[in-house]
Amino acid sequence: MSAQQETGTATAHRVVILGAGYAGMAAAIQLAARVKRREDVQVTLVNGQERFTERMRLHMTATGQQLAELSIPQLLEGTGAQFVRGWVTAVDADAKTVRIDDDRVLPYDTLVYGLGGVADTSAVPGAEDHAYTLSSAQDAELLADRLARLGSGTVVVAGSGLTGIESAAEIAERHPELNVVLLGRQESGAAMTPKAKAYLHAALDRLGVQVRAGVEVVKVLPDAVELAGGESIAADAVLWTSGTRVSPLAVAAGLAVDGHGRIVTDAALRSVSHSEVYAIGDAAAIRQGYGLMHGTCQGGMPTGVHAALSIDRVLRGRQPKPFRFGYYHTPVSLGRGDAMVQFTRPDGSPRRVCLTGRMAVRYKETVTASPWPTYGRMKKMPASGAFWPRGGRFTRVRRPQ
């Protein structure tokens, strides 16, 4: 690929999107669909592999369940967007280039940074060496292989957030011969209503998951975890779901980041230090009226779409609009036959309403399966992807007088 692509007498404006997760795919398809008839705009999506990773299903992959093979190049067909397979190893924000696999350089005029987070195994000794993660499909498959070879024993799931809850339930259901222990600093479902929390705990109890709250893992050993206070729990496998970290490439590039390494954005999702860089999904520190957004698919895809809308407006000589998003639910699978959905206010606080049982299973599956057909619809009707809850008063950022 040449550094400059000539189209007639003008040089094409090169938009490079890093990362083909939920947010990055949304940005690529939305923008490519909107500029498809323009010869002066080139959209390129960069990802380390051609397979689309359904992160919301990785707990299923980790228990040996076969998922559909979803192809990134196949989905991009007909959009005019180019796909480059390779790992991003450096970003030069001053030179406006991206280095891929250390041996290729890709120039850009506008960059969309969507390199999402991975499990943070760096904070606790031994986690990097001895714990499994759900950072990728390959990681989940490694755990599935380990679980399949265990005839008996104990699996410790470290982290009582949604990923930990879903993983513990899935492992317990698929491997009833194993003892599953869910450990966390906070109570599982701490942000839910008492009714939803009670249902969650009853489901985990029914599946035989031993839940321990108020504990902290301070070391992971080959055959155990150590807790603060000196207690040790024997473990034949440890799944680490306690916290995430983002790629260090943004800070290395000189982009303004927050204390967690996420790119700080303005209201239009542009980097506050480099206006030609947009940040989306887990890679961005996006402030709303209720505070910073936290990484979820329900919020990630809208950030990708909004970045595309902003770029399209700028390319047409207009100003981008501010991004606003309000949460609306927290779906949690509890094995294949049970689930719970906690509906929320735009700031993420729980409403009184929740779904449980089979109805919640159908709701959760609809949510989990929705990104792929949504991408397909956006190829034909870009505007179909631009609808999400804006959050009303909860998302208004009050500016200093």
Helix and strand layout, with pairings?
Layout: E1 6-7, E2 10-11, E3 13-18, H1 22-34, E4 41-47, H2 58-61, H3 72-76, E5 82-85, E6 88-92, E7 97-100, E8 104-107, E9 110-113, E10 118-119, H4 127-130, H5 137-149, E11 153-158, H6 162-174, E12 178-184, H7 194-206, E13 210-213, E14 217-221, E15 224-227, E16 232-234, E17 237-240, E18 244-245, H8 249-252, E19 263-264, E20 277-279, E21 284-285, E22 287-288, E23 291-292, H9 297-315, E24 329-333, E25 339-344, E26 350-356, H10 357-369, H11 371-380
Parallel strand pairs: 3-4, 3-9, 4-5, 9-20, 11-12, 11-17, 12-13, 19-21
Antiparallel strand pairs: 1-2, 6-7, 7-8, 10-18, 14-15, 15-16, 22-23, 24-25, 25-26
Helix pairs in contact: 1-9, 1-11
Report what the structure shows:
The protein is an alpha/beta fold and 401 residues long. Helices cover 28% and strands 26% of the residues. It is built from eleven helices and 26 strands. The chain has helices spanning 22-34, 58-61, 72-76, 127-130, 137-149, 162-174, 194-206, 249-252, 297-315, 357-369, 371-380, and strands at 6-7, 10-11, 13-18, 41-47, 82-85, 88-92, 97-100, 104-107, 110-113, 118-119, 153-158, 178-184, 210-213, 217-221, 224-227, 232-234, 237-240, 244-245, 263-264, 277-279, 284-285, 287-288, 291-292, 329-333, 339-344, 350-356. It is globular. The model is unreliable at 1-9 (pLDDT under 50).
